[in-house]
């Protein structure tokens, strides 16, 4: 009980000094809890949506997607004949059945040709208005569609794009473009996570999406009273046979949930990973805080030991303080985490994914996990300072207020740090020289962990050398004040090393990802320059990325073009010369001009020969694994087509980005063995202008495709910029998440300086008494902060560039051969680190400047 009282007294006596450590715990726990609440809420939202929109039993085509997405490469959804509806209605236990048609491979535009699609990545759905939708949607304005000239739109999409009754809407599908005017607006009765939905009447939907009447994509079946979904499924299957997909509402909901589960898990674990980094950085803050508090209370601890307190009691007293810190920070963090989750929901709302706070889901495991993590991490971080406090000798403590130095422990630490760093460096070397990316990635991970731990452990040793160098370069120009700042930073190398290490972790990851991202862009740019001979690349930005036939005709009819190359793919089963059977392999089909559009390196034969009748190419690695050589014949069974034997006329090099792993045949060969209505749409088009007419052809292409905003025309400059922008957006998002760790590291610098000022109160008073001005005192503290921040930045950036360069060596095995160090980014981060140091020193320097000289000198 005495130990508890002592701990409580000490904790509240130093509550101001504990505050920043509590903030670090709070932020880390809040990020974990916020992530869990946010992803749980998204799961709840999707669960409610899928359960509400699924009929008791759904009948669809055998090859249709479980998730309801249009998966056919033809751009049309898989359909079933209308006769199925009558058979289903005759099945036992059926109360009602209704045929529906819908597709997700549609581009919807307004009268100005602007796309009416979600920005959140959710699908655009065009379908027939039916009774199942009427259960989950409420018409708030106008009426349901009646006839080919009418369309109804969901309320969220109408609000976002300012649509009103009577507005013209164009729906561009593989069949053609259908125009209709808004007849009604319907609101979801459950939360819509962001899909844009447009309703037509059934006959119009059939003609617009499939090009024929008398077919449905689904039949929605409602069970009679007392009939379970499972019983109804058995009855419907008995009536139809096994030629169709029959699913209960629960099965449909589960399949849909599985489709979003992967995305949600990636988001969840990525965010938790960044929270883990913040926890790691927070550990250094907590260690520094308790180490300095123990050092400042050395005399007090000595008195406790002198009057009979044991080492265990002193140790336990410090750990109880840590426990209080962990509990308070974690409890506040759980509450803040719920706030973060609500904030993320609002942010997703601005991006088009609507999440209602009515669905906010806080499972009991979330606060439990947050509390457990926060408390355990805090107590573990405080263990070393607590153990050090227990070792304080009573007599030594009473003689000297400073903490006892442990020379032996410092030597052991240096040796361990050097060994870890050496082991990490060796692992990185092995990774960089690996022959296979998969084998090297394990060594890379080991090297990253070992070098990070090594630099953390060896930090005090590095601080002694680097701070002196930085002092000579940066601080000496400030005269005596600069030299005092340097000595303050060197006074306790362990503290400086730990403070710099906290900043090092975040900046190392920033530098590593910058090098990898920049190298990816440079490699892709270099590959485009070397291999792509076409002037323009046309692609669809829609989900699925297919180009409809009318757009292909528009491109081919564009004036000023020398050639247009189609590029499509489908699935096929292969039987290889060695007897190996491969199911659902991808085979690309393109025109013979592709050999000129993309300068593909071959190790045997010429790529142009692969486009001869009944011919194909295979990649080098694939050929080596299966003993394939020029002249080998491969049995190819096209999905939904016929089976043939294709002769290998070229073996392409696996040493590249664009063609690595691809198997090619000609469009004509594919068309020979696939029915016309099964031919896949184009994935992209390559176009080459007449000599000297590139600018005019570029303008003409954009004009020809103006009516379909989903299609983008890019020249090579545009394509390079798009790649750079995509990678840049990803990196910016990652940098934003890493900002949490950097904020915690900044708190660590602030806390270290604040506690250092308290520790040196008497010293500061004496310096002020002998003539040091307030301005000089503040500058001294700011310079000390800057040198610590720059020290951490040097370690982090150097370490991160080493990791990034090693990662690029592995990526080179996959075709990304150019190493590019983004010096502007690295330089900006380095300079920003100095400003971080200045910012972190503002409050400690201000407090030091306001210190009363006489009171400071009188401090014991």
Automatic annotation (TrEMBL):
Named from the GO MF annotations, one term is: transmembrane transporter activity
Q: Where in the cell is it found?
A: Cell membrane
What ranges does the record give for the region Disordered, renumbered to this chain? 60-79
Among Pfam families, the record links this protein to:
FtsX, MacB_PCD
InterPro entries referenced in this protein's UniProt entry, alphabetically: ABC3_permease_C, MacB_PCD, Macrolide_Exporter_MacB
Q: Polar residues: which segments have biased composition?
A: 60-74
- Ranges that cross the membrane: 269-295, 318-342, 362-384, 414-432, 452-478, 499-522, 733-758, 783-805, 825-846
User: In what residue span(s) does the ABC3 transporter permease C-terminal domain sit?
Assistant: 274-394, 737-852
Instruction: Please provide, in alphabetical order, the Gene Ontology terms of the cellular component aspect for this entry.
Output: plasma membrane
Q: Report keywords, A-Z.
A: Cell membrane, Membrane, Transmembrane, Transmembrane helix
The residue ranges of the MacB-like periplasmic core domain are 19-238, 499-699
Topological relation to the membrane, as annotated = Multi-pass membrane protein
Q: Which family does it belong to?
A: Belongs to the ABC-4 integral membrane protein family.
Q: What is this protein called?
A: Membrane protein
């Amino acid at each position: 009980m005495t130990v508890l009282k002592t701990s409580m007294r000490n904790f509240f006596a130093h509550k101001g000094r504990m505050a920043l450590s509590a903030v670090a715990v709070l932020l880390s726990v809040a990020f974990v809890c916020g992530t869990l609440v946010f992803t749980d809420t998204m799961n709840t939202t999707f669960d409610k949506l899928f359960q509400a929109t699924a009929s008791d039993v759904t009948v669809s085509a055998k090859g249709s997607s479980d998730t309801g997405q249009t998966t056919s490469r033809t751009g049309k959804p898989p359909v079933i004949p209308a006769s199925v509806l009558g058979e289903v209605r005759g099945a036992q236990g059926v109360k009602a059945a209704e045929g529906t048609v819908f597709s997700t491979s549609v581009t919807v535009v307004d009268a100005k040709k602007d796309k009416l699609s979600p920005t959140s990545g959710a699908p655009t759905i065009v379908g027939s208005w039916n009774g199942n939708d009427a259960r989950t949607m409420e018409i708030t304005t106008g009426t349901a569609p009646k006839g080919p000239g009418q369309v109804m739109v969901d309320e969220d999409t109408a609000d976002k794009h300012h649509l009103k009754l009577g507005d013209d809407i164009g729906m561009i599908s593989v069949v053609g473009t259908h125009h209709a005017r808004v007849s009604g607006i319907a609101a979801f009765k459950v939360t819509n996570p962001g899909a844009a939905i447009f309703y037509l009447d059934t006959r119009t939907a059939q003609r617009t999406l499939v090009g024929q009447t008398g077919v449905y994509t689904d039949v929605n079946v409602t069970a009679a009273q007392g009939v379970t979904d499972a019983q109804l499924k058995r009855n419907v299957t008995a009536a139809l046979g096994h030629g169709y997909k029959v699913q209960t509402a629960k099965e449909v909901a589960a399949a849909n949930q599985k489709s979003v589960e992967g995305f949600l898990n990636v988001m969840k674990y990525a965010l938790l990973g960044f929270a883990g980094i913040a926890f790691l950085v927070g550990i250094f803050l907590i260690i520094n805080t308790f180490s300095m508090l123990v050092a400042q209370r050395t005399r007090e601890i000595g008195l406790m030991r002198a009057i009979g307190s044991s080492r265990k009691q002193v140790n336990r007293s410090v750990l109880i303080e840590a426990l209080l810190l962990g509990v308070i920070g974690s409890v506040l963090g759980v509450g803040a985490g719920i706030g973060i989750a609500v904030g993320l929901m609002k942010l997703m709302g601005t991006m088009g994914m609507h999440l209602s706070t009515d669905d906010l889901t806080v499972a009991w495991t979330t606060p439990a996990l947050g509390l457990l993590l926060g408390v355990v991490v805090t107590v573990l971080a405080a263990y070393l300072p607590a153990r050090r406090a227990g070792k304080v000798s009573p007599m030594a403590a009473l003689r000297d207020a400073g903490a006892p130095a442990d020379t032996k422990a410092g030597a052991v630490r240096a040796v361990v740090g050097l060994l870890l760093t050496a082991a990490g460096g060796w692992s990185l070397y092995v990774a960089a020289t690996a022959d296979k990316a998969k084998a090297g990635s394990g060594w890379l991970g080991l090297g990253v962990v070992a070098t990070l731990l090594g630099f953390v452990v060896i930090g005090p040793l590095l601080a002694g050398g680097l701070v002196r160098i930085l002092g000579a370069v940066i601080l000496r120009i400030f005269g005596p004040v600069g030299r005092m700042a340097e000595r303050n930073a060197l006074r306790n190398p362990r503290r400086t090393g730990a403070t710099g290490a906290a900043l090092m972790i975040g900046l190392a990851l920033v530098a590593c990802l910058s090098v990898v991202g920049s190298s990816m862009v440079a490699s892709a740019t270099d590959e485009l320059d070397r291999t792509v001979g076409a002037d323009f690349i046309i692609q669809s930005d829609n989900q699925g990325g297919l180009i409809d036939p009318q757009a292909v005709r528009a491109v081919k009819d564009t004036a000023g073009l020398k050639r247009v190359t189609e590029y499509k793919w489908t699935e096929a089963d292969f039987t290889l010369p060695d007897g190996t059977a491969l199911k659902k392999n991808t085979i690309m089909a393109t025109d013979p001009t592709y050999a000129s559009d993309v300068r593909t390196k071959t190790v045997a034969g010429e790529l142009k020969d692969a486009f001869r009748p009944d011919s194909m190419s295979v990649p080098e690695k694939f050929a080596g694994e299966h003993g394939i050589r020029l002249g080998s014949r491969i049995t190819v069974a096209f999905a939904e087509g016929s089976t043939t034997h294709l002769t290998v006329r070229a073996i392409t090099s696996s040493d590249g980005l664009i063609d690595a792993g691809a198997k090619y045949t000609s469009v004509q060969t594919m068309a020979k063995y696939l029915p016309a209505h099964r031919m896949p749409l184009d994935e992209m088009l390559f176009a080459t202008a007449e000599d000297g007419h590139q600018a005019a052809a570029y303008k003409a292409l954009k004009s020809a495709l103006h009516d379909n905003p989903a299609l983008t025309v890019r020249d090579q400059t545009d394509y390079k910029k798009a790649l750079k922008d995509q990678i840049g957006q990803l990196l910016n998002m990652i940098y934003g998440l890493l900002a949490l760790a950097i904020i915690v590291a900044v708190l660590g610098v602030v806390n270290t300086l604040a506690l250092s000022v308290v520790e040196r109160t008497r010293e500061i008073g004496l310096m002020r008494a002998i003539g040091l001005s307030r301005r000089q005192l503040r500058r001294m503290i700011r310079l000390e902060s800057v040198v610590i921040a720059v020290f951490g930045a040097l370690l982090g950036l150097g370490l991160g560039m080493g990791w990034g360069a090693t990662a690029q060596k592995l990526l080179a095995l996959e075709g990304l051969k150019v190493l590019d160090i983004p010096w502007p980014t690295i330089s900006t981060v380095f300079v920003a680190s100095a400003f971080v140091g200045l910012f972190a020193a503002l409050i400690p320097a201000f407090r030091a400047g306001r210190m009363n000289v006489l009171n400071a000198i009188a401090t014991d």
